[in-house]
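Batch job 17 of 40 flagged for manual review because the log was empty.
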Amino acid sequence: MTEEEFENLVLESFEELPEKIRKTIKNVAIVVEKKPTEEQLKKTGIKYGGFLLGLFEGIPQTQWGKGFGMNLPDKITIFQESIENFAKNPEDIKKFVRNVVWHEVAHYFGFEEKEARKLEKKWR
């Protein structure tokens, strides 16, 4: 899949979020990278060679408060090669992208890993 096709899947997945959720997302960049850097893997505790499908980097909305006004935007990264390595076909890629985008948005709102996985099951 081309990078542009993959980016379109990410955009579509974001647009599938309920409108009331999309409207509350502010100051966050959603980007596509081929694969995670060593630094990103270290941050998450994943050893080199491990798989990371997506990553939220920033301050979750549950922790925002006074003094946070001059921060850089939060960042959600979706890793194309990681997802393509798990998927069996283009339809699988689309499902993975949707789940990963929604999962990382849950982290943006302050949900921990276990809670985000519970939400994923609801969304499917």
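Reviewer: the log was empty due to a logging misconfiguration, but the result itself is present. The longest helix spans residues 90-108. Unflagging and moving on to job 18.
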